[in-house]
Design brief:
Structural class: alpha+beta
Strand content: 15-25%
Protein name: DNA ligase
Number of strands: 22
Number of helices: 24
Cofactor: Mg(2+); Mn(2+)
Oligomer: single chain
Radius of gyration: 29 Å
Distance between the termini: 70 Å
Organism: Paenibacillus septentrionalis
Family: Belongs to the NAD-dependent DNA ligase family. LigA subfamily.
Largest sheet: 7 strands, antiparallel
Bound molecules: nicotinamide-adenine-dinucleotide, zinc ion
Shape: globular
CATH superfamily of the largest domain: DNA ligase/mRNA capping enzyme
Enzyme class: ligase
Helix content: 25-40%
CATH class of the largest domain: Alpha Beta
């Protein structure tokens, strides 16, 4: 290539990579795999080196991406960095050679302060969202994303939903900032997806998206976790080496992952690295490699940082799990909401210890973008990145195959499809089998009506044999209907009937979620139930009213209103009510245990707590047998004070009443009931 072409390619790569950074860091919705990204990135690094020219807007010169508006900005007390990377042992040793040269240079210039030969520590490289936590005199006062390394997004309320992050720590001498990774475990993701409106494909994006959601209750619903691995800024404490820093983290009750390996040289780590690569799929969280760091802190300080990463650490990235196979067919599946998704069948192939036969293709746009429109019967590359289902990367060679034909009619019911964005939809809600079966299955799911032992298979059987086409039909089933079914004995039939009967008194929030209102997940259903406290009221809510509620925007509000205007929905609901379905307003459990420490206590809540809403907290306290009152008096046993607590707090202090200002402590107290 001529220099001119190189120059053009370089600019092209910068443009592309910056777009990918935006999708990945800002939107938490990458459109290419990490390995594809890394390939482009490496190409850019090589070009910049060969041209001896680095443009100022190059992604190689900066950390992270643009920040979202809506969050307060937090200036990190010490900068946060990206990591240099090695993809194989050769690159790892090349990194070490650089490191040793830098140490030598330093020692020549500072003979009296000579640095020791490097020894290493190896940790997991968690694939989640970087968190920077600020503790002031022992209290968690801020939590932020990495952002551009200097300034991040303040996400304190979101981070406080992570139960393993301490809200206060024993170290109270000064200000510290610690870094870790917010993650979603794979088992939590799987459980979440069982009933999710929109299943999440990848735990990294699920965690990042949840933490950067303006609504902390959405974050809470994802049940995130975090591993802490670094003290970035410390006042009043210092460490000689990594071991001491780790000990400090543990002493302060941070969740430190037990996988930490100390080694005198890289050779010792070689077998660890290959063992880890083998084992990575057994972990319950995503990692994309290991991080190797120099143990000695003085060496870290002396060597410092490039524009982008520390010179004393390197990420060892695992080899991609890729394979080649033949694309056999693409089928189009209809989801509960009518969305049509392409699913690719490939010739069975081993990939990272599992046999792969199905791959995702996401949507029509994805097929076009990957140049797969004419790929049937040809060889394609597939990869298991950190996603649940492997994806097709593209064709292996230029060979033309058969065309993947985009459907115009629903593959299930034959209705005309409608294109919305990159997706196709079947609008035949009441006559399209997979949609109906999907709706019934969703209705019965655990987080919805919780009809025990109900599965997709049950829904299919009932649909075909008993004419159950709508959730309301479930409430018409009789023992005689069920006993006729294959694999149904008396016991099983009765059990299902009992479970259906029991579902009649589910709480309103679960019932609303069960209905499958578009764009309305569990959290929104709960908001509706808590606010309106009756089904009728929710059904009659107007858009203007709804958008006043926390976290309900115009799209969701309109979805809700038009859902309840639909005659078939109204019909279905009225049939259910007639059959005895009576959604409950979350009542307080009648028998609170007298052993509970809060039983019989008179409590006042003042100010705002980070995640617990006042209504919610009141309910929880009352459920423990406490009485929640509005004003502080001598009869008050306890005051729970959040931010902006005013005169009530002062009064409580004057009267010497016990005060709790820490949400974690409140939660702990509530929890002591089990
Ligand atoms: N698919 C895409 O479109 C896309 C776009 C941009 C970036 N990416 C991916 O992100 C990578 C680069 O991003 P980056 O700069 O965010 O991350 P990085 O790979 O440079 O690693 C730095 C991060 O590693 C994390 N980390 C996890 N465990 C750690 C530990 N034990 N010690 C220290 N740090 C630890 C930290 O959060 C730190 O911020 C790329 O290589 C690519 O794989 C993908
Ligand atoms: Zn259809």
């Amino acid at each position: 290539m001529s220099t001119n072409q190189d120059q053009q390619r370089m600019e092209q790569l910068i443009k592309e990579l910056n777009e990918h950074n935006y999708s990945y860091y800002t939107l938490d919705a990458p459109t290419i795999s990490d390995a594809e990204y890394d390939r482009l990135y490496d190409e850019l690094v090589a070009l910049e080196a060969s041209l001896g020219n680095v443009l100022p807007h190059s992604p190689t010169q900066r950390v992270g991406g643009e920040m979202l508006t809506g969050f307060a900005q937090h200036k990190h007390l010490a900068r946060l960095w990206s990591l240099d990377k090695a993809q194989n042992l050769e690159q790892l040793y090349a990194w070490e050679a650089k490191l040793k040269r830098a140490i030598q240079d330093y020692n020549t210039k500072n003979p009296s302060l000579a640095l020791p030969d490097p020894t290493y520590v190896m940790e997991l490289k968690f694939d989640g969202l970087t968190l920077n936590l600020t503790y002031e005199r022992g209290q968690l006062v801020q939590a932020a994303t990495r952002g551009n390394g200097t300034i991040g997004e303040g996400i304190l309320a979101q981070v406080k939903t992570i139960k393993s992050i301490p809200l206060s720590i024993p170290f109270t001498e000064g200000i510290i900032e610690v870094q870790g990774e917010g993650i979603m475990t794979l088992s939590t993701l799987a459980r979440y997806n069982e009933t999710a409106e929109e299943p999440l494909k990848n735990a990294r994006n699920a965690a990042a998206g949840a933490l950067r959601n303006l609504n902390p209750s959405v974050t809470a619903s994802r049940k995130l976790d975090a591993f802490i691995y670094n003290v970035g800024y410390a006042q009043g404490v210092s460490f000689a080496d990594h071991r001491q820093m780790q000990q400090f983290l543990k002493d302060n009750q941070f969740k430190v992952n037990p996988y930490v390996i100390y080694a005198d040289n890289l050779k010792e780590l070689e077998s660890e690295l290959s063992a880890l690569a083998e084992r990575r799929n057994e972990l319950d969280f995503l990692i994309d490699g290991a991080v190797i760091k120099v143990q000695d802190m003085r060496t870290r300080e002396a060597l410092g940082y490039t524009d982008k990463f520390p010179r004393w650490a390197v990420a060892f990235k695992f080899e991609a799990e890729e394979a080649e196979t033949t694309l056999l067919s693409v089928s189009w599946e209809v989801g509960r909401t009518g969305k049509i998704t392409p699913v690719a069948k490939v010739e069975a192939v081993e990939l990272a210890g599992v046999t792969v036969q199905n791959c995702t293709l996401n949507n029509m746009g994805d097929i076009e973008r990957k140049n797969l429109k004419f790929a049937l019967g040809t060889l394609v590359a597939i990869r298991r990145s950190n996603d649940v289902i492997p994806e097709i990367l593209g064709k292996v060679d230029e060979e033309q195959g058969e065309e993947i034909v985009f459907p115009t009619l629903c593959p299930a019911c034959g209705s005309e499809l409608e294109q919305r964005g990159a997706h196709l939809f079947c609008n035949n809600k009441l006559g399209c089998e997979p949609q109906m079966i999907g709706r019934i299955t969703h209705f019965a799911a655990r987080d919805a009506m919780d009809i025990e032992s109900f599965s997709v298979m049950t829904a299919e059987q009932l649909y075909h044999e008993c004419g159950v086409k709508d959730p309301a039909d479930l409430y018409r089933l009789t023992f005689d209907d069920l006993i006729k079914l294959e694999r149904f004995g008396e016991k099983k039939a009765q059990k299902l009937l009992d479970a259906i009967e029991k579902s009649k008194t589910r709480e309103l929030a679960s019932f609303l979620f069960a209905l499958g209102i578009p764009n309305t997940g569990k959290a929104t259903a709960k908001t509706l139930a808590d606010h309106y406290r009756s089904l009728d009221a929710v059904m009659n809510a107007t858009v203007d009213e709804l958008i006043e509620l926390q976290d309900i925007g115009l799209i969701v509000a309109e979805s809700i209103v038009s859902f309840f205007q639909d005659d078939s929905i109204k019909q279905s609901i009225s049939e259910m009510l007639e059959a005895g379905v009576a959604p409950q307003i979350e009542e307080l459990p009648t028998a609170a245990s007298e052993d509970h420490p809060l039983f019989g206590k008179t409590i006042v809540i003042t100010g705002t707590l980070p995640t617990l809403g006042r209504d919610e907290l009141t309910k929880k306290l009352e459920a423990c047998g406490a009485k929640v009152t509005g004003s502080v008096s001598k009869k008050t046993d306890l005051v729970i004070a959040g931010e902006k607590a005013g005169s009530k707090l002062t009064k409580a202090q004057q009267l010497g009443i016990e005060i709790i200002e820490d949400e974690a402590a409140v939660l702990q107290l509530l929890d002591s009931q089990e």
